[in-house]
Amino acid sequence: MFQKLIAFSAVFALAIASIGCGNDETAQSANGDLSSKNLFDDSNDAAKPADKGSEDSGQPSGNAKSDTSDASSQKPTGSENVPDSSSPDDTVKPTIGFVTNGIASFWVIAEAGARAAAAELGVNVEVRMPPSPEVENQKRMLEELVTLEVDGVAVSPIDPDNQNDLLNMVAENTNLITHDSDAPKSNRLGYVGMSNYSAGRMCGELVKEALPDGGSLIIFVGRLEQLNARQRRQGVIDELLGRDFDPDRFDKPGSVIEGKGYQILSTRTDNFDFAKAKSLAEDAIVAHPDLGAMVGLFAYNPPNILEALKTADKLGQIKLIGFDEADETLQAIKDGHCVGTVVQDPWMYGYKSVELLAKMARGDDSVFKASDFVDIPARKVIAGKTDEAKKTANVDEFWTILKQRLGKGDKE
């Protein structure tokens, strides 16, 4: 659509050259001073294409409920001071679709990054958040964006193995990339995110710190149909069992997995049902009172596990290891009730997705030439000191910068 509008506007401009044309609207931004710098000791250049030889195409997602009631979100209106001059016609703004796999605190952060990029780069962004994890909800939203003839779509697929036809349809009509969770078998142009398998192994490292002499644990996650969930889980298992690096390995759930003194008793899935997530944790505590650790792989899992541990008076007795940066999880790390959490950078997922699609809409075909994987590395957030060599971040330092990105300043 952007290219069609450019052709039309070029002709139209000749007809009205004597009077000119323009746009005086003001762009919306989550925070005029939002920056990617410092969250993971990174900058905007830190999110760079990974070497194809080292790629495992992992992904994330899931998460705590957002208190935003508008799952679709409004698009920004424009900007007087657009810094990007690569557009053939500055009066015509590309529109980018940013689609999540649900509504969650994780995605609120990602939306803030997408809107910051849109404001800085002079594009419109249409954010879509499926109200529940059914593929049909995401399908409807993707079809709507195609009908709107957006100039690019970034999506976190809910069930990539069963969405190839849908994703390929989108790819036939516009530039398509994935973020957070990949769909490598589709015709998407690239993936913005992290190696979920590597992040899973980082989570396994936290388990080993919590249980240095071995022990039993249960893994909690939304669903294993998503590639990111499978790879995170497998990373935890492989790290604990001392296996070699293999993102394609998959231990089917349903039986106890043992090795190196560790017993992974089960993997419990809740299908993004937060009430069920809590009840599964409660049931696990009752069934295994001597359980060593509970590992939550989606953002909403650790907070629900925390509630179950509080109710059972097991805080500190059963170790909690988390994923993502829900406020409850970060507070639990500060309070000593959570060993640590592995965090992605959802703000940068949103920012880079919009940035890359804006470049492609404006004719830059070099975006994914080096690699189809834009690696935004994970980090471990702990109560201890920040150590870049160990890929760890202090919880207070991390949380302060996260609040700045979301425009919350120093407010708790």
Could you please describe the fold and organization of this structure?
The chain is α/β, with parallel strands linked by helices and 412 residues long. The chain has two domains: 2-16 and 24-194 and 345-377, Response regulator (Rossmann fold); 196-343, 3-Layer(aba) Sandwich (Rossmann fold). Helix content is 35%, strand content 16%. It has helices at residues 2-15, 105-121, 135-147, 164-173, 196-210, 227-240, 274-287, 301-311, 327-335, 346-361, 395-405, and strands at 48-49, 95-99, 124-128, 152-155, 176-179, 191-193, 215-221, 257-259, 262-269, 293-296, 319-323, 340-343, 373-375, 379-382, 392-394. Strand 11, helix 9 (327-335) and strand 12 (340-343) form a beta-alpha-beta unit. Helix 3 runs parallel beside helix 4 (164-173).
